[in-house]
Amino acid sequence: MVRLSRVQVRTLGFGGSWLGQVRLGQGAIPAPRPQTVYPKSEPGESLEVAKLALDGARLTAEIGLPKSVIDYYQAHGQAVPSRQTVKALIDSGASISGIRPVVAQAAGLIQTSSVGISGVLGTENRPVYIAAVNLPDYNVNFDVLSVAGIDLPQQEIGMLIGRDVLRHVKFTYDGNSGNFTLEQG
Amino acid sequence: MSFQEDEAWFENNRAYIAQQYQGQYVIVLGKSIRGSYPTLGAAFNAAVQQFWPHAGFVIKQAIAGQPVEKFGSWSG
Questions:
Q1: Fewer CB within 10 A of the end CB, N or C, for chain B?
Q2: Which of the 8 DSSP states describes residue A33?
Q3: Among B7, B40, B73, whose Cβ lies nearest the Cβ of A146?
Q4: What is the CATH number of the domain that holds A134?
Q5: Is residue A118 pLDDT above 90, yes or no?
Q6: How do beta strands A169-174 and A179-184 pair?
Q7: Facing residue for B74 by CB, picked from A31, A114, A116
Q8: How many beta carbons lie within 10 A of that of residue A135, not counting itself?
Q9: What pLDDT digit, counting tens, does each position of A18-69 carry?
Q10: B15 Cα to chain A: minimum distance (Å)
């Protein structure tokens, strides 16, 4: 058997804690043995550039009930479950958007279906909720969006924004400047 | 009639429903189609106004194949 040794490539010149970290998507079903890849930096590269390369496109998302449900609560004098503010990650590898089930419960979302989620370990059935989603930093708003309830491996991420959202917006990822933009058409 | 039973009923009859409703979003309740709409938003809002919160409802798009979604660029 040939035993391969780990080869270290150039690493970030700041923040040694980033060494050895790699994030390959944020899927619901973790890969059994992720390959170790070290982030690279180029001479003179800014913090924003390295952060975007490592963390991905992160933004604030507000998750709440669609207007028709809020109207029902208000018409019946009932308290409306509060909108949940979470950190979201844009994942162009995801065909549908997803949120943590605890976020769905806290926002009082209604489950309307379930869907099979394909991963390296097989297909898992997950609930589908209807949510109103606002991305306030970019003035992008959806009143009725279907989102799957998924368990995300990174605790700080509450939502994955998939291609079902990206198909309705212009998403620009500028790795050279360390910035990204979203525009709703 | 439970949510799971309505979902199972839809899947068992998916081919026929897809032929009848051709891509529309349908409301399923009590093992029957209770409405069809051109968009998810229209179907959801109608279902809330007609049935919620007294009955749980299922909303599905009437297409032939059962969709399987993917998360993360490494999945599938």
A1: N
A2: S
A3: B40
A4: 2.40.70.10
A5: no
A6: antiparallel
A7: A31
A8: 21
A9: 434 444 455 555 555 555 454 566 677 788 999 999 999 999 999 999 999 9
A10: 17
